[in-house]
Amino acid sequence: MEQYVGFLAAILGTVCWVPQAWKAWATRDTSGLSLPSNLMFLMTVSLWLVYGLMVGDLPLILANVCGVLAVLSIVSAKLKFG
Questions:
Q1: Which pLDDT does position 16 carry in this prediction?
Q2: Where are the domains positioned within the chain?
Q3: 3-state SS record for 5-20
Q4: 3-state secondary structure 19-81
Q5: pTM higher than 0.90 for the full model?
Q6: For every one of its 82 residues, what pLDDT tens digit does the chain have, with 9 covering 90 and above?
Q7: Neighbours of 76 (CB within 10 A)
């Protein structure tokens, strides 16, 4: 049961960043995005990924791999488009 809750949290936590990344790249408008905030969140999900790998928690690993990729996409768009 715990893993189902973990996977649901992983899906929801990852999916919520996809629209922001999509909009940033589609419109090339990142003026409303805070680079420091997104860098801090990128560090957060990266550390959660490391922790998930250390404890061998699959939902935590999958969620944070996807989270890192989504937020990295947002940070990349912010750096590219200003």
A1: 87
A2: 2-81
A3: HHHHHHHHHHHCCHHH
A4: HHHHHHHHHCCCCCCCHHHHHHHHHHHHHHHHHHHHHCCHHHHHHHHHHHHHHHHHHHHHHHH
A5: no
A6: 888 888 888 888 888 889 999 999 999 999 999 999 999 999 999 999 999 999 999 888 988 999 999 999 999 999 999 8
A7: 14
Q: Give 26: exposed, middle or buried? Use CB within 10 Å, 0-12, 13-18, 19+.
A: exposed
Q: Looking at domain 2-81, which CATH architecture does it have?
A: Up-down Bundle (1.20)
For 45, the token pair is: 């999900």
Residues 6+ apart with CB under 8 A from 35: 75, 78, 79
Neighbour-count burial of 65, counting CB atoms closer than 10 A to its CB (0-12 exposed, 13-18 middle, 19+ buried): middle
